[in-house]
Amino acid sequence: AVPKRDAAFNQLAEYARKHSNDDNSITTTFGTPVPEKDSSLTVGYHGPVLLQDWFSLDELAHFSRERIPERVVHARGAGAFGYFEVTHDITKYTAATVFAQIGKKTPVGVRFSQVAGELGYADTVRDIRGFALKFYTEDGIWDITGNNQPVFFVRDFVMFPSLIHVMKRNPKTHIRLDYDMFWDFLTLRPETTHTTMIFFSDRGIPDSFRKQHGYGVNTYAFVNAQGKFNYCKFHWLSNQGIGTLTSAEAQKIAGIDPDFHIRDLYNAIANGNFPSWNFYIQIMTPEQAAKSEFDPFDDTKVWPHGQYPLIPVGKIVLNRNPENYFAEVEQIGFDPAHLIPGIEPSPDRMLQGRLFAYGDTQRHRLGPNHIQLPVNCPFHVHNYDRDGRFAIHNQGGAPNYHPNTFNGPVNDKRAQALTPQIPLQGVANRIDSVNEDNFTQARVLYQRVMKPDEKTRLVQNIVSFLVPTTSALRERAIDLFAHVDESLAQRIRDSLKATAIEQHVNL
Length: 507
Ligand code: HEM
Description:
With 507 residues, this protein is α+β, with helices and mostly antiparallel strands. The protein has 15 helices and 10 strands. Strands 1, 2, 3, 4, 5, 6, 7, 8, 9 and 10 form a 10-stranded antiparallel beta sheet that branches. The protein is globular. The two termini are 42 Å apart. It binds protoporphyrin IX containing FE (HEM). The site of protoporphyrin IX containing FE has 27 residues, from strand 2, strand 3, strand 4 and helix 10. Protoporphyrin IX containing FE binds next to strand 2, strand 3, strand 4 and helix 10.
């Protein structure tokens, strides 16, 4: 069925209703009125165009520069704005201003995304979804650049570029997905197993951005007003419930309405059906972390809720669509290094790499002053950065060196008091974590969490990705799943036997 005319279809009609055509002259890029926009300036009807037709050429030149690099991952997505409200007191864990008192509201920006597809890809493909939060606090920007599932494929950031390469296009055929690249990498790096199980589960294709949970994935830390330090994880659970699509449903929708998720979010908010999520934390003391039987800084693992219960904190409500997609969604930049006093990084190796990667890519994608875009930082900033392309807020005549005796900005005492003192020691080394415990939590997920019908769909989904690869890689993948559960491996084997596989190359 063709999508019905909805709020998204009516966007232009709605614009026209709110904006009259009076006093609405076209202007040049420098603001002067344009007499005639419908023809270029020519010498007679068939004459050549004059170089002095400056504003036609200016428009052409601007058009040719409309595209900026898309995000190297998470290129495709949708954004919305709203607020975070504190419902429970957690000041005993953190002095972060955003949690200062019950009832406090902080504006938020949110972007939902798909990891591997490009900007113009279809929404309903099997993939992890990004779910990034930006809190506009009085202490500046705090970002949680999260996902829609609690764990990630790899635990050391040096693995990330290769992981993404196998999820993107083959460098020669330019085809995605290349199933041989995909299974080759996953089976050589068994730490991917836990997330791979979720990728192939029902949660691998949400039916709406609104009907999915969000997770910080990495481990962070909190510092309270007394300087006490604890590790923490962030979770935000959907009040719309969980909605998923089967592979068959998703494939059909991808053909009919590739913008299915973007449309759904836009319409929900335009119709006043504001989506919301309840926000929780998990807390682990440094003493518990030191004794933990699993690595609390390994993002391929969850912290079991029985041991580390979800502590309610607040809620997130999205009640405003972007006024302009490019300005507020394409140009928004989330960064795990954007932390505020009271919230700190942990030694999580993935997080440590991410602290560098996002600002770095945004300096390339958006420019060195991307942070001055209104959606990224609406605050008055006081520091010693100056100049660079598109420096809008260049801080007037304030001193541009530190220290100085001319009333330039100084160290912040409160932020200083909240900086944790962390004793560290060890031997610098490169330690490959490939043989960490890679299967226990994946086994719990399969044996104790998944219901029988979910297991059946898991097997079908895995098999559909195994059919196009080589028999050698199929065997390696079956062996990987046998480490999770022998009966899972057997079901995959049986299902593959029942599927006609055309093997073009004898591998
Ligand atoms: C986006 C790198 C791991 C969630 C991005 C971007 C880069 C990147 C370069 C594009 C940012 C932009 O252009 O604005 C990395 C690296 C990782 C890593 C190097 C590993 C070390 C993760 C993990 C998560 C995650 C573990 C899950 C928590 C996201 C999300 C976005 C994103 C949600 C999209 C943000 C947005 O909506 O603009 N990542 N990433 N990434 N990443 Fe990661």
